[in-house]
Amino acid sequence: MIDLPGIVREYGYLAVLIGTFLEGETIVLIAGFLAFSGHLELPLVMLAAFVGSTSGDQLYFFIGRFWGRKLLARFPAWRERTERVFYHVHRHQNLLILSFRFFYGLRNVTPFAVGMSEVATLRFVVLNLIGAAIWAITFGYAGYSFGHAFEFLMGKIKQYELTALGLLVVLGLSIWLSARLRNHYRKKRFEQAHLTEGAIEVPGNEAEGQAVPAGAAQAAPEPGKAAAP
Fold first, then answer.
1. Do the beta carbons of residue 127 and residue 98 sit within 8 Å?
2. Does 229 map to a domain?
3. Within 10 Å of residue 130's Cβ, how many Cβ atoms?
4. Which backbone phi and psi does 92 adopt, to 5 degrees?
5. Residue 169 lies in a domain
6. What is the pTM of this model?
7. Which end of the chain is less crowded, N or C, counting CB atoms within 10 A of the terminal residue's CB?
8. Nearest-CA neighbor of 82 among 61, 112, 62, 103?
9. CA pair distance 204, 210, nearest whole angstrom
10. What Rg do the C-alpha atoms of the chain give, in angstroms?
11. How buried is 125 (Cβ within 10 angstroms: 0-12 exposed, 13-18 middle, 19+ buried)?
């Protein structure tokens, strides 16, 4: 198993930035705890998480906008998760962009799929910044608060730092496992709804015959021609 606490202690804010660029709630929780124990500064932990998360999701958005159709044609296994996002983009566009970071399994695919939809670039950028700020503050402060609560219960944090970090890792794994199970059941419900509603063409993919749930999204703009906000 990767020693996340050790990596964060050794590389500090860089580890938080890279971890959140890829996808990592657990690394922010650990960094928040290490801020409480004096290894890092909480505002800088939140800033690194904000920058990493924003940058990663903006990159996935532009990949979807300029190369999404080609990638879906090349990797058809991505279609099921992308279709699920199209389904929700149509119904809860702003809320989805603000909150997708809080749902395991949607972090990377959502900005990619949104990039293929009719959502304007400026709208996504603004909502992405707001969502990343909320996410970074929430998880950074959650890790910090865990350290405060642990010290209140156990005494000096330095004596039990490894135990507390181990509990945080277990907590992160528990969140991951419960999210996997939740996504499994959501996938089944989505497939049932998908069969009931029928399908339409994936935005911009009429010629390729790729389908998404009926009414899920409008045609995506051509590369470099995003719709107005």
1. yes
2. no
3. 13
4. -140, 60
5. yes
6. 0.70
7. N
8. 112
9. 9
10. 20
11. middle
- Structural domain includes residue 209: yes
Q: Which domain holds residue 107?
A: 4-213
Tell me the pLDDT tens digit for each residue of 51-102: 999 999 999 999 999 999 899 888 887 787 788 888 888 888 899 999 888 8
CA–CA gap between residue 136 and residue 128 (Å, rounded): 12
- Tens of pLDDT, residue by residue over 5-63, are 888 989 999 999 999 998 778 889 889 989 988 889 999 999 999 999 999 999 999 99
Number of domains in the chain: 1
Residue 50: how many other CB atoms lie within 10 Å? 22
Q: Is residue 86 part of a domain?
A: yes
Residue 115: closest CA among 58, 160, 155, 156: 58
For the chain, what is the largest distance between any 2 Cα atoms, rounded to a whole number of angstroms? Answer: 65
